[in-house]
Amino acid sequence: MNDLIYFILVIGALLVVASVLQPLAERLRLPHSVLLAAVGVAIAVGSVTLLQTKEPRMISEAAAAIADMSFSSSTYILVFLPALLFQAALTIDVRRMMEDAAPILLLAVVAVFVATGVIGLAIWPLTGVPLVVCLLLGSIVATTDPAAVIAIFRDIGAPARLVRLVEGESLLNDAAAIAIFYVLLEMIVSGDDPDLLKGAWDLAVDLGGGTILGIVAARLAVSVIPLLRGSRTAEVTLTLALPYLIFVSGDHFLGVSGVVAVAVAGLVFGAGSRSRLSPSGWAYLDAVWEQVAFLAGSLVFILASLMVPKLLVNVSLHDGFLLLVLIAAALVARALVLFLLLPPLTLLKLSAKISNSYKLVLTWGGLRGAVTLALALSVTEARGIDGEEQRLVTVLATGFVLFTLFVNGTTLRLVIKLLGLNRLSPLNQALRSQVLALSLADVRDSIQQTAVEYEFPPTVSRAIQKPYEARIAEVTSAGSLEERISDRDRITLGLISLANRERQLVLEHHGLQTVPGDIIEALLRNAGEIYDGARTGGRIGYNRAARKILRLPRAFRFAYSLHRWTGVETPLARQVSKRFDKFLVRRLVLDELIRFNSRSLKPLLGERVSLLLGEVLSGRMEASSKALDALELQYPDYAEALSQRFLRKFALRQEMLRYESLFDDGLIGQELFEDLRRGVESRRRLADRRPKLDLKLDKVALIAQVPLFNGLEQKDMARLARILRSRLALPDQTFIRTGDRGNAMYFISSGAVEVVLQDRRIRLGRGDFFGEMALLDGGPRRADVVALTYCTLLELRSGDFKKFLKANPHISELIDQVAKQRSVKLVA
């Protein structure tokens, strides 16, 4: 057989091994990567042993294929690293990660510099090699492999924050360490004296340029998604190409860090694409990338482990001593960052406090893996590095990887348990008891109903119910949730639950395809802001964030001003459409949240807390309805057109779901289904068109609506319209107060106002008028008038009106007759 055939057979066999090791690792309660490394080393050693035997021929040839298999370091980095980095970044919740941005950056960036320096300085006096080579070794072993640690954390139920810290650190850690590695390697290979300033500048260009490249490329990719028209295969193909295009462009053409660019691109794409992809499209994308990461991660670990025997050549006792020094220096460097540099961030309020237990786990959990081995391999390939220096770096780096995997990796679960981090907090313990009690009671009742439905004997149902009744008694013996947790904590817990549920409901509306992706993105951002407010400030923080998202954004204010001064309508139409869609969906979401509170949170948190949560939601509903009403009053025709568009898109989605159901049930064939689908897509494209916003008002038509001017001829109304003056009212501005002397009436050209009477409130919108009696008697105002939005008012002042009547005496008689009739009605 030729080499290619053996290569394919070996790769296939290794994939089989990786698949078998996954369930075995779960059964043995060991990290998957630890088993992969162990099997990889065992295969490598076994192949060398089998080479000594000539028979059977097939086995000796397979052993030779494995022993001779070699990949360059660039193959590991170029083929596997972009996919692994992108997938890790893609699945991270950026908003949650930003909660711990300061400690993550400290662990991921500052810690890499500290580890590089401490390890290099510790090894340097004992080796006799240049300091820059020792620093190079430090940068190599500063990279981390989070897969094993995160798997352990999730398996034993470690706190979510601990998982988030490791995920964020590992993603940015590799980027920073590899950037430092290449800067130091360039110094060594060039043969020039190390230049600290040049090295710092090169590193800054690498990191900064990579960040910019990642952001720009990811935003471009996100903007392309709508053009793919929901094709899941096209969306996945785009994301598969993206990390490799970015990596190669950055590293080989733009002179910036491709690793940093890919990591940043994954974060930006993951944050921006959720609102552009359908929920099913995102789930499909996530599943594909999870499989890609498993394949790449498994292969890179086994293939790198196959290289271990080749890297561990001519090992001496002195190498063993240096390895112990390296291990101690790495642990000291990590402890320095966690115990000395992290506390000041807490004092400066840049980070929530991280307990000493967390710090110990993070210190011990710094496992290394395939990236470290690949970088060590690249040292053996670099020209300009002395052979002994190459051997020293590769031996120590490889030994350190094996130590972290087989010592740290196998004992990390024990360390976490000894520190008690696998136990729930008192709040979660109480919540767990409440959830169990409610859920088990539901299961017990459903058992009874099912037994009756299927006519099972009562003895059968009682036998199955009895264990559930025992468990209910056990979990309720500790006391109710109300007894174990204060009202304040339960309210905060309820508000956080509402914020999380709000995010889910927004994504459900995204699945209905009733609003554009940018609206969903804004609503998700708002839900995140409300979550942050509840988490940090409880009820006050939740309400403050809810009020903040009601404010008019800068883009709306700019579009309004642009239209007012230039008459350009398109930006304002776009902003009105966005705001209308946001408030319409938000009102629907709040309505569902009110039901969710009554249905799910009331049994869980208690009636008193549920009532308080209901008040908060009612306040939000009232404020949102007020804002939506103001838009409908300000642009009534446009609001109606937008409502029709929303409902039309909802109907199209329901129509498509019906066709899909018929197709899944086999009632219609593929050809008919595709024809129906194309029809729906065609109508959806028409429905996506934004209706035209007509902001032009006929002043004469406005005047004709006022009863005071009934009987005036068209030419007289035209003369009256010419003396109207424009006036701008700002949102929440009270421009008429009860008791003030009336000296003008107003027509609403655009916007909406609220007339506040003693016994009621009246909302007026575009085309309405108020204050007409002030033109006649100049008496005191009978109500406050408050602007609900930006309002353009046409003002008719009393003095101007009197001059108009004096110049047109024939009109004065008509006005006097109407005024007397209006006065009689007011008195009555």
Automatic annotation (TrEMBL):
Main subcellular localisation: membrane
The keyword Ion transport belongs to this UniProt entry's keyword annotation: yes
Entry GO MF terms: potassium:proton antiporter activity; sodium:proton antiporter activity
InterPro entries (alphabetical): Cation/H_exchanger_CPA1, Cation/H_exchanger_TM, cNMP-bd_dom, cNMP-bd_dom_sf, RmlC-like_jellyroll
One GO cellular component term noted in the UniProt record for this chain: plasma membrane
Keywords tagged on the record: Cell membrane, Ion transport, Membrane, Sodium, Sodium transport, Transmembrane, Transmembrane helix, Transport
Protein name: Sodium:proton antiporter
Origin organism lineage: Bacteria, Pseudomonadati, Pseudomonadota, Alphaproteobacteria, Rhodospirillales
